[in-house]
Write a structure and sequence with these properties.
It is a single chain. This protein has about 45 residues and is mainly α. The chain has one domain. It is about 75% helix and about 0% strand. The chain has helices at about 1-25, 35-40. The relative contact order is 0.08.
Length: about 45
C-alpha cells in the first residue's frame, strides 16, 4: 500500500515537473503552416 502511494506521488510529481517545463519553454512563435502560407501570400 505504501509503495503504491509513493509511486502515485512520484508520477504526479514527474507530471508536474514536465508540465512546468513545457509551460516555461521558449517555443518558436507562429511556425504553423497557416502562418507560413500567410507570409508567402504577403510577399
Amino acid at each position: 500500500m505504501r509503495r503504491t502511494l509513493l509511486t502515485l506521488l512520484g508520477a504526479i510529481g514527474a507530471f508536474a515537473v514536465l508540465t512546468a517545463s513545457y509551460a516555461t519553454a521558449d517555443l518558436p512563435a507562429e511556425t504553423s503552416a497557416a502562418a507560413q502560407s500567410a507570409q508567402v501570400t504577403a510577399q
